[in-house]
């Protein structure tokens, strides 16, 4: 197999794109596949039904898992709701093909008016898997600490149980560990990030996955690249990336976003050099 060029978008069906990738390369895989019968106006989210959707899911997941490093993590987004109960079956399937590691809850902060017979949906899920049961995956909890505000730090420093205030201050200034409930607002129409993809994930959300589960210079795979958020984040954080996307319109959007991200980075380097 020829040497793989990093930081590039492969315009292809997911199975065709994955077939050309080497084994055990990616430290991190972030997959945001079509949920199936969620975006009812998008043809690409309504192509497969029932068992056919699960069979396709097993096929692309097996093909992608082959490319994951033994100490890597595999994140798969999904959603429950009025129509999307198939996510339950997807989770069961994937946990038989790989090893369950965690289930993240993406709190979108603002609910979406999808149903009138129950509570307003306000979250999506992200199943986290590792390749084998006996391998400890790389994970850096310090990379995704959440800062305390100044008032909270001041209040905690008054706690008389802590004798070494300098050590306590250092700990507080690092922030608290992020939980597996990720509270990141979804993108609205007025957001500067919004580029026209109906299921676009926020850069902040993807950044938390990339920063915690890979190192600078590691390879990251996104087999459903969409509008290119994973590529934009990886460019900013110094990770190599490969994206697979079959829709030519989304490929153009992704290429434009990544080019703009590269321009911003080059400008910052120039500014630092002239300072």
UniProtKB/TrEMBL annotation:
Residues 27-256 form the DNA methylase N-4/N-6 domain. GO terms for biological process: methylation. Keywords: Methyltransferase, Transferase. SUPFAM superfamilies: S-adenosyl-L-methionine-dependent methyltransferases (SSF53335). The keyword Transcription regulation does not apply. InterPro entries: DNA_methylase_N4/N6 (IPR002941), DNA_methylase_N6_adenine_CS (IPR002052), RM_Methyltransferase (IPR001091), SAM-dependent_MTases_sf (IPR029063). Gene3D superfamilies: Vaccinia Virus protein VP39 (3.40.50.150). One of its GO terms (molecular function) is methyltransferase activity. Its EC number is 2.1.1.-. It is an enzyme of class 2 (transferase). Belongs to the N(4)/N(6)-methyltransferase family. This is Methyltransferase. It comes from Actomonas aquatica. The lineage of its organism: Bacteria, Pseudomonadati, Verrucomicrobiota, Opitutia, Opitutales.
């Amino acid at each position: 197999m020829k040497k793989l060029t990093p930081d590039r978008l492969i315009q292809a069906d997911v199975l065709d794109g994955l077939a050309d990738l080497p084994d055990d390369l990616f430290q991190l895989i972030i997959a945001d596949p079509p949920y199936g019968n969620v975006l009812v106006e998008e043809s690409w989210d309504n192509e497969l039904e029932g068992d056919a959707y699960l069979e396709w899911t097993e096929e692309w997941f097996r093909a992608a898992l082959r490319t994951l490093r033994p100490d890597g993590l595999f994140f798969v987004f999904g959603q429950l709701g009025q129509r999307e109960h198939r996510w339950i079956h997807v989770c069961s399937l994937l946990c038989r093909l790989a090893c369950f590691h965690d289930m993240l809850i993406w709190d979108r902060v603002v609910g979406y008016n999808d149903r009138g017979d129950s509570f307003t949906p306000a979250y999506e899920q992200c199943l986290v898997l590792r390749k084998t049961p006996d391998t400890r995956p790389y994970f850096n909890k310090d990379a995704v600490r959440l800062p305390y505000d100044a008032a909270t730090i001041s209040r905690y420093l008054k706690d008389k149980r802590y004798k070494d205030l300098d050590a306590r201050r250092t700990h507080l200034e690092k922030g608290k560990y992020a939980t597996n409930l990720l509270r990141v607002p979804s993108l609205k129409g007025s957001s500067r990030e919004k580029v026209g993809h109906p299921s676009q994930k926020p850069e902040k959300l993807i950044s938390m996955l990339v920063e915690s589960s890979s190192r600078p210079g590691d390879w990251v795979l996104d087999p459903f690249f969409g509008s290119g958020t994973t590529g934009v984040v990886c460019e900013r954080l110094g990770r190599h990336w490969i994206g697979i996307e079959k829709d030519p319109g989304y490929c153009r959007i992704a290429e434009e976003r990544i080019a703009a991200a590269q321009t911003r980075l080059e400008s910052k380097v120039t500014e630092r050099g002239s300072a």
